[in-house]
């Protein structure tokens, strides 16, 4: 078990809603997790599950209006970030908590050289002079494995390949030696061989620098290869929270099981895939009970009537499902639910 | 030889692509002259039999989508021959090509971009039927309802617009449109790449069952190797405009021969221990297709490259029963 004092970030009951003409979209509606020092936490789920909104909420990057963090706490080093002033947040972003995004081309400024853009981080957050900042920028490029960094630093983003740009983004994010790196689909836009390079790089740097990483992804493969602990999200809520080993050995929530069964297997032939029937519910019109109930093969009356809590199970993981509560009478369903 | 390839060989040859080249001009300089070419596809040969699913995989810029577009004549290829049902498509004029498209349909990646937002589903499907004039007018509406049923959409969708549907449903509309004219070959260009896994599984199941029902042939262009492994009978691996390996699915995934195929397969992140392979992390990036490396195009990233690889282009050679590899080190 990890020590209590190693805890660097705790998200409690986070709720981020969007107030639009069409109604209230409860994009994030009760998310809890803990990140420890040096640990990689995966947040996994499909489009619209609220995984990116969760990460943006941690850094308070939600556009308001229409978005608003309506409840919960984000505790970073003992203090609630949601009650901080904007000026304080600005000091924390990119310095203590930094973030990389899916598409490096939209996050980089196209008219400045990548060296200048990294140097800016040092000038803003660490008050370095131009020359010193440039030297540090080149060092960072070297750290993320860019060949001939002195030359590359002078180039503009369009002169670099996709993988190279993502390395630049990582260099920039790690410049201030942050305690937390939030990576939002960092390899989704990249080809598999380049993805393998970037994931390898992130792992090495994490071991060297000891930061905590929040890895947001839709790819269960990426989760399995990089994460220590995983929060599976569905329709704005965490439905399962477990160590990566437990999650892949013994997934519990019917949604997690459904996701794993939907993936084509690499080791055996299947005539057809076990798809999850139906679609994700609209965020404007969530089901009253468990949000997965309309698509769940095990759903009963109680599932449609009331939202289950995220509860501890015997092996230390947490699951939000009526099937694992005393209210559920027929426990043979649990054994039937397993991954094929 | 696997049962599948045997069956495939008994069937009729549907598509025969010979030495296909697609070079796009790069304009530049003061006068905007063509200063160079992007060699997107540079000499590709393969055959397809009726009823099989052949996949083309490779990373961005390898030429897989360009190959598909060339077969559909959406771009005009620089060189080569494409025989579809015995007819060289590159010799046809526009009008003749339109006729061929009755048997040759496509499903694109982005169901948001490939459906007209101002057309109802009825009008989208009706248009497909009337362009090819496959049915008398009186029977078309009936056919539209039949198509919706085939792809699993409710009958009341016919008066709705594309934006009222989710991504997976829109892809079903795209499939219905391709299916409308009763084609022989459907080119699926990253047809499930934009979908979430749970919905992707639904669409993959649909494609498979439609194939069985209507004896369709699929040319499946994709980058996701898990999907490719699930859907294909045979697989082509491309790198930088050239085919590096062709094999039936089982052979390709169990005993890949080309060093690039090996690296590609090892790079897939997987969730199960029994699926894990020893990771081969390739150095560097894919070179530019404007100035591809001399000799084997993979030599500068290949962990096994020898001197011959730097100067001689390896031909695509048959090593056994239709397993073809382009590598000097594989005999």
From TrEMBL, chain A:
Protein's organism: Aquibacillus albus
**PANTHER family in the cross-refs:** DIPEPTIDE TRANSPORT ATP-BINDING PROTEIN DPPD, OLIGOPEPTIDE TRANSPORT ATP-BINDING PROTEIN APPD
Q: Which domain of life is it from?
A: Bacteria
Name this protein carries in UniProt: Peptide/nickel transport system ATP-binding protein/oligopeptide transport system ATP-binding protein
Its ancestry begins with: Bacteria, Bacillati, Bacillota, Bacilli, Bacillales
Enumerate the GO terms in the molecular function aspect.
Answer: ATP binding
Family statement drawn from the similarity comment of this UniProt entry:
Belongs to the ABC transporter superfamily.
Checking SMART domains in the record gives: AAA
Name the CDD domains for this protein: ABC_NikE_OppD_transporters (cd03257)
What's in the keyword line of the UniProt record? Answer: ATP-binding, Cell membrane, Membrane, Nucleotide-binding, Transport
Domain ABC transporter spans what residues? Answer: 11-260
Q: Does the keyword Acyltransferase apply?
A: no
The portions of this protein that span the membrane are none
- Its topology with respect to the membrane? Peripheral membrane protein
* Cellular location(s): Cell membrane
UniProtKB/TrEMBL annotation, chain B:
Q: Which InterPro entries does the UniProt record give?
A: AAA+_ATPase, ABC_transp_ATP-bind, ABC_transporter-like_ATP-bd, ABC_transporter-like_CS, Oligopep_ABC_C, P-loop_NTPase
Residue intervals of the ABC transporter domain: 15-265
Q: Which UniProt keywords apply?
A: ATP-binding, Nucleotide-binding, Transport
Q: Does the keyword Nucleotide-binding apply?
A: yes
Pfam families for this protein: ABC_tran, oligo_HPY
Q: Name one GO molecular function term.
A: ATP binding
Question: Which family does the similarity line name?
Answer: Belongs to the ABC transporter superfamily.
The protein here is known as Peptide/nickel transport system ATP-binding protein/oligopeptide transport system ATP-binding protein
The source organism is Aquibacillus albus
Q: What is the lineage of its organism?
A: Bacteria, Bacillati, Bacillota, Bacilli, Bacillales
């Amino acid at each position: 078990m990890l020590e209590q004092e190693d805890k660097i970030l705790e998200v409690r009951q986070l709720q981020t809603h969007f107030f639009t003409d069409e109604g209230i979209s409860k994009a994030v509606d009760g998310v809890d997790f803990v990140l420890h020092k040096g640990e990689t936490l995966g947040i996994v789920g499909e489009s619209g599950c609220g995984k990116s909104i969760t990460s943006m909420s941690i850094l308070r990057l939600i556009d308001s209006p229409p978005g608003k963090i309506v409840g919960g706490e984000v505790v970073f080093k003992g203090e609630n970030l949601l009650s901080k002033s904007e000026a304080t947040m600005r000091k924390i972003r990119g310095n203590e908590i930094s973030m990389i995004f899916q598409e490096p081309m939209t996050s980089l400024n196209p008219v400045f050289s990548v060296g200048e853009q990294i140097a800016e981080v040092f000038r803003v957050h660490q008050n370095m002079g131009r020359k010193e900042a440039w030297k540090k920028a080149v060092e960072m490029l070297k750290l993320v494995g860019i060949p001939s960094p002195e030359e590359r630093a002078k180039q503009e983003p369009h002169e670099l390949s996709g993988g190279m740009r993502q390395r630049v983004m990582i260099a920039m994010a790690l410049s201030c030696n942050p305690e937390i790196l939030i990576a939002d689909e960092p390899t989704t836009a990249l080809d598999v061989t380049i993805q393998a390079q970037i994931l390898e790089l992130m792992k090495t740097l994490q071991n060297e620098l000891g930061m905590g990483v929040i890895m947001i992804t839709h790819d269960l493969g990426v989760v399995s290869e990089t994460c220590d602990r995983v929060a599976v999200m569905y329709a704005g809520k965490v439905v399962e929270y477990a160590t990566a080993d437990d999650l892949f050995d013994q997934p519990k929530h019917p949604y997690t099981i459904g996701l794993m069964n939907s993936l084509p297997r690499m080791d055996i032939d299947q005539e057809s895939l076990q798809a999850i029937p139906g679609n994700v519910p609209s965020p404007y019109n969530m089901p009253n009970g468990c949000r997965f109930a309309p698509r769940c093969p095990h759903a009963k009356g109680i599932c449609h009537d009331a939202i289950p809590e995220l509860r501890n199970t015997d092996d230390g993981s947490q699951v939000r499902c009526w099937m694992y509560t005393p209210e559920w009478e027929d426990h043979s369903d649990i054994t039937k639910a397993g991954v094929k | 030889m696997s049962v599948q390839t045997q069956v495939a060989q008994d069937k009729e040859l549907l598509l025969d692509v010979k030495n296909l080249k697609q070079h796009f001009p790069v304009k530049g300089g003061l006068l905007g002259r063509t200063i160079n070419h992007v060699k997107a596809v540079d000499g590709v040969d393969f055959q397809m039999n009726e009823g099989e699913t052949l996949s083309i995989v490779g990373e961005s810029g390898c030429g897989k989508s360009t190959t598909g577009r060339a077969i559909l004549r959406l771009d005009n290829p620089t060189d080569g021959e494409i025989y579809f049902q015995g007819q060289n498509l590159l010799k046809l004029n526009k009008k003749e090509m339109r006729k061929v498209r009755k048997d040759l349909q496509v499903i694109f990646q982005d169901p948001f971009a490939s459906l007209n937002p101002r057309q109802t589903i009825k009008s989208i499907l009706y248009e497909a039927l009337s362009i090819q004039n496959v049915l008398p007018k009186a029977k078309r509406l009936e056919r539209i309802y039949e198509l919706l049923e085939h792809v699993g959409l409710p009958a009341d969708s016919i008066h709705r617009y594309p934006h009222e549907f989710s991504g997976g449903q829109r892809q079903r509309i795209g499939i219905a449109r391709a299916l409308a004219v009763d084609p022989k070959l459907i080119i699926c260009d990253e047809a499930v790449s934009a979908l979430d896994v749970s919905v992707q599984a639904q669409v993959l199941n649909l494609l498979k069952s439609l194939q069985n029902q209507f004896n369709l042939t699929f040319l499946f262009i994709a980058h996701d190797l898990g999907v490719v492994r699930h859907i294909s009978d045979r697989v082509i691996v491309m790198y930088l405009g050239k085919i590096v390996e062709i094999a039936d699915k089982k052979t390709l995934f169990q005993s890949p021969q080309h060093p690039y195929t090996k690296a590609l397969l090892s790079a897939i992140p997987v969730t199960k221990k029994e699926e894990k392979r020893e990771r081969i992390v390739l150095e560097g990036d894919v070179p530019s297709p404007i100035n591809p490396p001399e000799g084997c195009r993979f030599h500068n990233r290949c962990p096994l490259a020898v001197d011959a690889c730097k100067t001689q282009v390896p031909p695509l050679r048959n090593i056994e029963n239709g397993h073809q590899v382009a590598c000097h080190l594989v005999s």
